[in-house]
Amino acid sequence: MTSQEFNILVGKLRPRLVHFANGFVKGGAATAEDMVQDAVIKLWRSNELQEIRNPEALTVQILRNVCLDYLKLKKNNMDALNPNFRIYTEADPSAVLESKDEMCNVNGYLAQLPEDQMLAIRLRDIMGYEMDEIAKILGTSEGNVRTLLSRARQKLREKLMSKWKQ
Amino acid sequence: METIDSKRAGDLLERYFEAETTLREEELLRDYFSNGDVSPEHAVYIQLFCAFSEEREKLNVTSPALPEMIMPVRNSTRKFHFRWMSVAAAAALAVFAFLMIPEKGDSLKLIIDGVNVRNRELALTKADLHLEQVNSLLVRFRDGSNKQIDNMNKIGDALSPFKSLEKILTQTTVSDRLE
């Protein structure tokens, strides 16, 4: 893959990647952009680029770098990036905002999950990747991805149930 | 579009929470929850699946259609040809230069039996050997030429009596005319 092809592809994939990174990075769009940019640079410098031929594989590789960097960052700065960053008002009178609020609720629940579980949910339920692809992105086994996903979904279920009963 | 009833949805939901559903089954679940015809026992999950659907839509809006992305890969073959064309042009130029000025550089080469000798020491010994052979040939030639000169001298010596004879003859003819 030449640098020109790489640039064209990354330029087209970037919005999607930034949107994905933005879902779990809490510093505004600038931080998500930075993470994607770092991931792209890392990929460009690595030898793995030789084997990449299609856009889907390129996306997976960049996502992998984004996710692994994020997990590393979280390990080092647990306090700086507290996941309880949003508190949603449930007494919103506007019906239009209600659905948005619900979605924010789900996002809020997602943010409270452990990082690897949250990433597994995002990669599966939002990005729509297969189990083996998620395993590759997160640098773990398929069985482990299944466990992560199952635990994450169970936790979301508990949160929804408890809120439902209120 | 395939739709599922609440019983099937219940089964799929149980498997969903055990992370045993396929991508297709998860899509069916999202469709079921976005349809609005959800059984009351499943109403608690509407929020979850609708949030996923919404996020997915956002991702698809921000990403361009994938077929467009195949373009640059197709371009690469054309670029590949251009690259080889430049290599071919360089090669042609090199051949042309070689044909036009073949002597240049040849003076520095030593070719024995069509093999280009690159070893400097070997080249020097070979050159020495050949020069010695030339030298010995020249010596032989010089010896030969000396012999010829000797022979010429001998001939000259042999001819000397004739010279004195000629002197005597001229002297006699002059004296005859005086008389």
Would you mind describing this structure in some detail?
- The complex is a heterodimer of chains A (166) and B (179).
- Chain A has 166 residues and is mainly α.
- Chain A has two domains: 1-82, no CATH class; 83-166, Arc Repressor Mutant, subunit A (Orthogonal Bundle), CATH 1.10.10.
- Helix content of chain A is 73%, strand content 0%.
- In chain A, helix 3 (55-76) crosses helix 6 and helix 6 crosses helix 7 (142-165).
- The longest helix of chain A is centred in the last third of the chain and has 24 residues, at 142-165.
- Chain B is mostly helical and 179 residues long.
- Chain B has three domains: 6-63, no CATH class; 70-100; 110-179.
- Chain B is built from five helices and two strands.
- Chain B has a two-stranded antiparallel ribbon with strand order 1-2.
- In chain B, a hairpin with a 2-residue loop joins strand 1 and strand 2 (115-116).
- In chain B, helix 1 (6-17) crosses helix 2 (23-34) and helix 2 (23-34) crosses helix 3 (46-62).
- The longest helix of chain B is centred in the C-terminal third of the chain and has 59 residues, at 120-178.
- Residues 63-75 of chain B have low confidence and may be disordered.
- The A-B interface holds A 1-2, 4-5, 8-9, 12-13, 15-16, 19-20, 23, 53-56, 99, 102-103, 105-107, 124-128, 130, 146-147, 149-150, 153-154, 156-157, 160-161, 164 and B 16-20, 23, 26, 44-45, 47-48, 50-52, 54-56, 58-59, 62-64, 66, 68-73, 75-76, 79.
